[in-house]
Amino acid sequence: MIDKTYNVLFLCTGNSARSILAEAILNREGRGQFKTCSAGSHPKGQVHPLALETLAEMGFLTDGYRSKDWNEFAVPGAPQLNFVFTVCDNAAGEICPAWPGQPMTAHWGIEDPAAVEGDEEHRRRAFRSAFYALQRRIQLFLALPLESIDELSLQTRLREIGRTRDADAA
After folding, report:
1. Considering the domain boundaries, does residue 131 fall inside one?
2. Known catalytic membership, residue 37
């Protein structure tokens, strides 16, 4: 049985869709082994309604999610992070704060469902697609032997997960 709890932060510029979905998925599928949060470099201030709708559709509780600034996790007293994953290309290219705990980082870019245009059903499909892509990457992450893998191998595997094609997730 694993006793360690890992602190994970998912980042996206607006922290309204992809990072919120990832936070919810890992918190549930990580079964207490992970304490997961999300944040953005320029948070929108609210969670996208279709992100919440998608979570509800997938059987997740939707209370308590909020769009927040990544600086909340870079101040003294913030939890020491073990992993930080960027899920959008903009956040991956930005200069991030110095995170407490010197976490492992990787880019797991997912297309922004909030930027998809079209009718309501087309937009809903984009959110479901992002959900499934993130879920697949998180499942790959959860399959890693975190307690026994060396840091270099772990970093390599985290980056490989980020290169998982979205089509593989459906």
Report:
1. yes
2. no
Average pLDDT over residues 109-138: 95
The total domain count for the chain is: 1
Note whether residue 1 is domain-resident: no
Q: Which of 58, 74, 96, 144 is catalytic?
A: 96
| Catalytic member of 12, 81, 126, 140 | 12
Domain boundaries, position 92: 6-169
- CATH code of residue 29: 3.40.50.2300
Residue 88 among the catalytic residues? yes
- Lowest-confidence region among 2-6, 19-23, 91-95: 91-95
User: What is the model's pTM?
Assistant: 0.92
Which residue in 39, 55, 87, 88 is the catalytic one?
A: 88
pLDDT at 55 over 50: yes
* Integer Cα distance of 76 and 151 in angstroms: 25
For the stretch 110-115, contacts whose Cβ atoms lie closer than 8 Å and that sit 24 or more positions apart, written own/partner, are 110/18, 110/134, 110/166, 111/166, 112/17, 112/18, 112/88, 113/17, 113/18, 113/48, 113/50, 113/51, 114/14, 114/16, 114/17, 114/48, 114/50, 114/51
